[in-house]
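We emphasize that the prediction below concerns an isolated chain of 195 residues; any contacts that depend on oligomerization or on bound cofactors are therefore not represented. The input was used exactly as deposited, without trimming of termini.
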Amino acid sequence: MPATHLLYLHGFRSSPRSTKAQLVQERIAQRHPGVTLWCPQLPPSPREAMDGVLQGIAAWPRERMAVIGSSLGGFYASWVAEQTGCRAVVLNPAVFPARDLAKYIGEHASWHNPQETFYFRPEYVDELRALGGAAISRPERYYALIAKGDEVLDWREMSAHYQGAQGRLLEGSNHAITEFADHLDEVLAFLDLAT
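Result of the prediction step, given as a token string:
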């Protein structure tokens, strides 16, 4: 059954204004006008972020929804996919965010608007840990786009975590996957979106 609902989850310090989120929104509007797309601004608290997402998708048909997530949003997308059984695309996904973000406690500026700041609190690391990080239960439901040139996350950890998933390992590139537009058709084809 083609997916009629798509969730996009951005990364740490990012927003629905990210280049990848904007590309997805434009492509959905052009080629999949029947798809409901939701790209929420996620709060810094992982517990609040996932509570808000679950409330937002509560009425969505589980068998006809899909999720895309980038970086920390990739971790969240995997969590959502494990809760709902939907298909997921992860873009340079965070695999151990509790470990990696522990050193980022403090105030941060939003990537797309430096005037917007937020405070990443110590308890948020515990909230990430509480969400778990267990192995994905059904790799065939996942597509992982991973860049060997990611300057933030280790591509080997990402590849190992999503072993058995479909996807592409990019030589070079970077954490932002600057050439994401070149891979967007493949990503959306995996999700089998309604037209």
